[in-house]
Design a protein that fits this description.
It is a single chain. It contains 15 helices and 14 strands. With 383 residues, the protein is α+β, with helices and mostly antiparallel strands. The chain folds into two domains: 68 residues; 295 residues, Aminopeptidase (3-Layer(aba) Sandwich), CATH 3.40.630. It has a six-stranded mixed β-sheet with strand order 9-6-1-2-3-10, with helices on both faces. Strand 12 and strand 13 form a beta hairpin. The chain is globular. 32% of the residues are buried. It is a single-pass type II membrane protein. It comes from Herbinix luporum. It is found in: Cell membrane. Involved in SarA attenuation. Affects resistance to oxacillin and teicoplanin, as well as the synthesis of virulence factors.
Length: 383
Amino acid sequence: MQDKRMEEQLKQQVMRYMEDEKRPQRKNIKTNKGKMSKKQMQKLKRTKRIKKVGSVLLVILVLLVFLVGTKPGRSLLYKIASKYVSSHVQSPEDTEVSNRQPSDNVIREDHVKNYLIFGIEEFGGARNTDAIMIGSVNTKDNTVKLTSLLRDSYVEIPGYKPHKLNSAYSKGGINLLIETIEKNYKIHIDGYASVNFEAFEKLVDSLGGVTIELGEEEAAYLNRTNYISDKANRNVQAGINKLNGNQVMGYVRVRKVKTLGGANNDYGRVVRQQRALKAMFDSAKSPKNLVRIVPISKQALSNVTTDLSQKQIEMVMKAFFENNSKDLETLRIPVDGAFDSPKKYNGIGYPIILDWDTNRIEMYKFIFGYTDEEARIALDKVK
């Protein structure tokens, strides 16, 4: 309702200005031209130029206010931006989409869409998944949530022996990774996006860098190791830093040093990944980047592969920028107190053994907004 009022006010302002331009006073000026001095003529011309420039600026201002300040305007921006993104990301091979088997016994809600997001690290000819997350978009309240799945989680892999979650992709690509997540976590995946680490750096740079707070141990470790690949960037400090893409890439890969707050190993790595994504989330929502959302990196998009349609991308953008919460909400699975981490289990070194029922319930509560009882009832239906 408020958007419609604003739109109507803007239209009225333009109409009033146009009416002013049509006033007959210019005729009177023309009839008196012969009596005007050269100085007066020059002044008249300057006045006309100022009016023309002013009218153009007013129209531009009105358009900007409409596009950014009203829902219909922003919807138009999302449509344009989603078309741009859709045309520049990489599409999966046809077999990757057609061979995916729909999973039974999974939780889904029409108003919540769950997208698998994962990073691919290419090393020694192998392509392994590193960060594995589920991005959940709630179309009812326009919220976006992020659930991190620890890559060392011990899971059942269809057609193979149980192993760590990050091994599924190397065994059977994206289809097997999605099937594995749906089978173990009992949640429907609506689509996916994979990001090459090179794209991650470029995306951070295209946002103008991100602000992250570092602990003393983290800063010292990043400056003396090769996690930050470019030596010229090994100059971070304890406290608040404006980090570029190369520095953020090093930050999110660190495992052996405690985070600011005390988390270590894979848990600390997930905390860093979530903090980096929150910082990117905040940067992307800033006014300077909102108007640059379409050109925010053609190069970065070329390193992203997704099976999302243009309409799905538009929906994600709308939820992302209309987000009702100030911060990106995050969860880590497994949750504290609901897993074991033995040195060896069934021949696998250092796996994470989940208490599945507890973790599924906590994940359903977080993603779908269920109460504890609703989550338990939903789980009973799909077990």
